[in-house]
Amino acid sequence: MSKIKSALAAMPKPVKIALWVLLALLAYALPLLEPPFITTPGVDFGGVLFVVTMYMLVALGLNIVVGYAGLLDLGYVGFYAIGAYTVAILTSFHANWPLLLALPVAIVATTISGVLLGAPTLRVRGDYLAIVTLGFGEIIRLVAVNTEWLGERKGISNIARPPSIGGTEGVFEIPHLNWDSGVPLLDFNDSTKFLVFGVLDQIPYYWMGLTVVIVVLFADYLIKNSRVGRAWEATREDEDAAELMGVPTFRFKLLAFATGAFIGGLAGALYASRQNFINPDSFLLLFSILFLAAVVVGGQGNRWGVLVGAALVAYLPQRFREFDDFRVLVFGLALVVLAVLRPEGLFPPKRTVRAKQLEHELDELEEGTDSEGEEKARA
Amino acid sequence: MPDAHILEVDQLTLRFGGLTALDNVSFDIKEGEILGLIGPNGAGKTTCFNAITGVYKPTSGTISFRGESLAGKKRFEITQSGIARTFQNIRLFPTMTALENVLVGADAQHSTGILSALFRLPKHRREEEAGHRRAMELLRFMGLHTKADELAANLSYGDQRRLEIARAMATNPKLICLDEPAAGFNPQEKRVLMDLIRKVRDQGFTVLLIEHDMRLVMGVTDRIVVLEFGKKIAEGTPAEIRDNPAVIAAYLGVEEEDAS
Amino acid sequence: MNFEFFFNNLPSLTVSGLAFGAIYALIALGYTMVYGVLQLINFAHSEVFMYGTFAMLWTVMALGGADADGVELVAILLASLVAAMALSAIVALVLERVAYRPLIKRNAPRLIALISAIGASFVLAELMGLRDRVAGWLGLEDDLSDYVGKARINNSIAGVVEAPRWDIGGVSVSSIDILVILSAVAMMVVVDQFVRRSKLGKGIRATAQDPETASMMGVNPTRTIQMTFLIGGLMAGVAAFLYMLKIETTKFDVGFLLGVKAFTAAVLGGIGNLRGALLGGLVLGVAEIWGSALLGTEWRHVVAFVLLVVILLFRPTGLLGESLGKARA
């Protein structure tokens, strides 16, 4: 594993970029390839992949709050809900805006709600923040349940879809692969229209989700490697020391919260647009826990690990639907086992790995000198 | 003005519940000097530091820095205005590299926000470049430049102490407060460190130094303030302090009243 | 706002609120003590409570509580109380052993311990919710059908206990509410005195204040932590029993909301503070019932959470402050 990594690191930059582009293309093509075993029997594969991208988006956002800034947020679904409801209200329930107009409004509204929630609560201690955010998530849902203006339990339907390119027929059609005969064949009866956001074919939504994930991933990288990222990390490591080194920790915690809310709102809005319909049950507290699990399973603080965690949390229950009844049980077991056996997550940040390695080497060195000493003593 | 006062502590009193940690302490620090703050354990040295850097609010009395009162200023504002410190028990950011630790210090004087970072605006580039340059300079000054990419947690004890000083210097302070920087050092290391502190001063910083080891303090400081049980019992040049009977009594652990 | 209804029914609303609050307080005890000693939000404590409600339900069913009355019924109810306390205590101890001890030993970060707690909470709730399947694997589904059926819906003992309503000073109150309030307060006093006076209790307080020094002074940390979970479990069992008397139905996921409420009560009173848990529970219960009388029952949970947020903003350490270690505990 580490050999592959160092080999990758040693490659010249153009090769690396080419590899990345290839990887991205593969990701885009995944639902067209319909690879056997990976594809989900009984559920639309494109739809599953879209949900995976939404979890990835949410996990990236929550990772900023939990992984970078070290703030435990148990009510992240609240932001997701605000984004979704804003879009639902503006495009269907109380107005008729197009999605592209409602989307920025939804994001701004969610970001503002993040600041409004964070401004008073980020001053209280970390554990309290967890419970206050938990309460926040529930309040948002309960308000939606109880307010006529928000559709109550019935929810809101007919939410606007993204605009299609090239009318209802699209610009061109892309055939899928068919594996029924054992070898992949192009199947022209089963094709995806580029780029039609319709009811049946979910693949365009997946492409949209994947594109947003890639953009957010870049943004995450740029922000992390700057004064802002350093301030978050310093605050997480030692808030008092950071403050005494001139970091306005409160402001940066609030910024992390707002950035997280921004991404959460964006994900919620896209989700609502693809679902076409939302009700309060789409925003149960369980989802906050699932989002958090995605971050922690992958390895908080490591954006790639977090993506893998999100993919696992979203994909596995869909792939193994026959075990649907047991999915929460298995999921809970996985969390306990993971916490007990591999607390830094499946893919901890490189640094943690490096620190552990060094520790290990030191241990070995010490053991080595010990045994030498023993040998000497024996001689 | 060579003799200008950079920091003035005026009748500073700090009480925690019934306990008086600092009782009417006054002293000033002149620009460009190394002032030693000494006293037996529990004399209130670190409390005094904490009051200066905004960790504790004074019960009464004032602290002014370059003619401006520090009352009501937040801790990070005090740092940004030019007072930096180190900690008695090392408090680096363990999962960050040595270089990043120093960069956090340098960031105190920067203002890059999320938008500049996101769009890599000229401000981000400028500040990032200046920060890196200054940080590497300081690491070299501390002899840590070969370990810039090492995680702070993995540095040796002595390197961590030096890294803390580098981080404090990176905030571009006028006054730098060192809280027992030589704690845990052997005599040889202590001597090297004292040379370093002199060099820090020669770079134009004013230094406030808490130290336990009398001999070392005598060697490096220009003036010394002695605290005991939260009160200032003496102030003067090292030579004056050495011969001060109250200080001798305090360090021998004999109460003046008992001695007389 | 329905002021007329509110003021006409103020006394009975208050009694009902106090009864809910008393149950919250008993559950909150488990959160607050574990937090005081380990600084860990024992997220799965709600399931400890939930298992207690089922122990109570099954005991009443098994002993034929539906057909009993008089002394016999009282005996059955006492047996169900013991069963609830026993099962809750066992679940709490297993939880400590499996989900927390390995982490505590390694000094894992608190977030990881919380994740483990969340996972354990899912596992416990789902095991109860899938108990028909579990019994099926063991080939027991026919013998136990009364107990494992209706695994994912409400299970009820409605009608077993017909409690009279008492007229106190012209106000009609439920005798169950009075019983709930009095026994909860009595249990809180017992635990408070135990933690203050007994040797084990002193060990708990010492560990809460300074684990290292406590262990150097001969306090066994593992045993102390076990003890903390045991007391929390027993009290959750009492809470489960009282809850079943009052509400009469339970479900595999009943723990979640009650757990959140109880934790809110603990934070409200000042987490780590036993008397705070009682005060926090009572305040929360009354505020909730008053709030739902004024605004409509659908706003009940919103009132609870808003109260929490508001109190934390003005008194970040809760009403009575945080202290298991201090003499106040």
UniProtKB/TrEMBL annotation, chain A:
CDD domains: TM_PBP1_LivM_like
Keyword presence, RNA-binding: no
Subcellular locations according to the entry: Cell membrane
Membrane topology: Multi-pass membrane protein
Keywords: Cell membrane, Membrane, Transmembrane, Transmembrane helix
InterPro entries documented for this protein: ABC_transp_permease (IPR001851), LivM-like (IPR043428)
Residues that span the membrane, as ranges: 45-67, 74-93, 99-119, 126-144, 205-223, 254-272, 278-297, 326-347
Name of the protein this chain belongs to: Branched-chain amino acid ABC transporter permease
Automatic annotation (TrEMBL), chain B:
Residues of the ABC transporter domain: 7-254
Family matches, as InterPro entries: AAA+_ATPase (IPR003593), ABC_AA/LPS_Transport (IPR051120), ABC_transporter-like_ATP-bd (IPR003439), ABC_transporter-like_CS (IPR017871), BCA_ABC_TP_C (IPR032823), P-loop_NTPase (IPR027417)
UniProt xrefs under CDD domains: ABC_Mj1267_LivG_branched (cd03219)
PROSITE patterns the record matches: ABC_TRANSPORTER_1, ABC_TRANSPORTER_2
Domain of life: Bacteria
Coiled coil: none
Pfam families: ABC_tran (PF00005), BCA_ABC_TP_C (PF12399)
PANTHER family listed in its UniProt record: AMINO ACID ABC TRANSPORTER ATP-BINDING PROTEIN, CONSERVED COMPONENT OF ABC TRANSPORTER FOR NATURAL AMINO ACIDS-RELATED
A GO term for molecular function: ATP binding
Taxon lineage: Bacteria, Bacillati, Actinomycetota, Actinomycetes, Propionibacteriales
Protein name: ABC transporter ATP-binding protein
Record key words, sorted: ATP-binding, Nucleotide-binding, Transport
TrEMBL record, chain C:
Stored InterPro entries: ABC_transp_permease, BCAA_transport_permease
Keyword Transmembrane helix appears in the UniProt entry: yes
CDD domains the UniProt entry points to: TM_PBP1_LivH_like
Domain of life, per lineage: Bacteria
Keyword Magnesium: no
Membrane-spanning ranges: 20-41, 48-68, 74-99, 111-130, 176-195, 225-245, 251-271, 278-296, 302-321
Membrane topology note: Multi-pass membrane protein
Keywords associated with the record: Amino-acid transport, Cell inner membrane, Cell membrane, Membrane, Transmembrane, Transmembrane helix, Transport
Major localization class: membrane
Annotated localization: Cell membrane
Family stated for the protein in its record: Belongs to the binding-protein-dependent transport system permease family. LivHM subfamily.
Family matches, as PANTHER family: BRANCHED-CHAIN AMINO ACID TRANSPORT SYSTEM PERMEASE PROTEIN LIVH, HIGH-AFFINITY BRANCHED-CHAIN AMINO ACID TRANSPORT SYSTEM PERMEASE PROTEIN LIVH
Protein name, UniProt field: Branched-chain amino acid ABC transporter permease
Source species taxonomy: Bacteria, Bacillati, Actinomycetota, Actinomycetes, Propionibacteriales
Gene coding for it: livH
